[in-house]
Amino acid sequence: MNFDLRKNQKKTLIFAISAAICFIFLAAINVFAVNNQIKTTESFIIGSDVQISTATNAAVNLYIGDNLAGITNPVKSVYFIISGIYTDTGAGGTLEFKINDNPSSSKIFTLPTAGTTPTPFEIIYKDDSNTINSTSAGSYAYTLNIIPTNITISSLSGKMEETQSLFPV
């Protein structure tokens, strides 16, 4: 049997380089995971068994127990998931959301015409205005304004999902 040492040296070198790349990659993932921890909380904010056809408010209570010192803009995103069943006047309608009556947080969603047929809906509203942007640990109270126009909502339900950074990035 004849062995060519040059071939084995190449294979050994390729293996060593591959192992080194894998080690560097795994180390980088570990550093990223330690320095960029993210936490998401989910909170139920409203549930109504009465029909709603005028503006209503949902109390939004946010508790942050983590130390946010040294983190710039720790709240990364806030989403509200609102669902229910609606009917309208036959001409369609809209559903507007605001936080703390802040006009810059206003978003209006147009719903398809449903008439008297009960029609389910689910809307995801994101706080792009950063109205909810707590910068330290504590309890915070906000109000989600829900403003239906030309619709009646039954079985209104909503939750908030808030994501924050736990360590400086």
3D architecture notes:
With 169 residues, this protein is of the alpha+beta class. The protein has two domains: 1-35; 39-165, Jelly Rolls (Sandwich). It contains one helix and eight strands; from the N terminus they run H-E-E-E-E-E-E-E-E. The strands form two sheets. The protein has a four-stranded antiparallel beta sheet, with no helix packed on it. The protein has a four-stranded antiparallel beta sheet with strand order 2-7-4-5, with no helix packed on it. Strand 4 (93-99) and strand 5 form a beta hairpin. It is elongated, with a radius of gyration of 26 Å. It starts with a helix and ends with a strand. Residues 1-6 have low confidence and may be disordered.
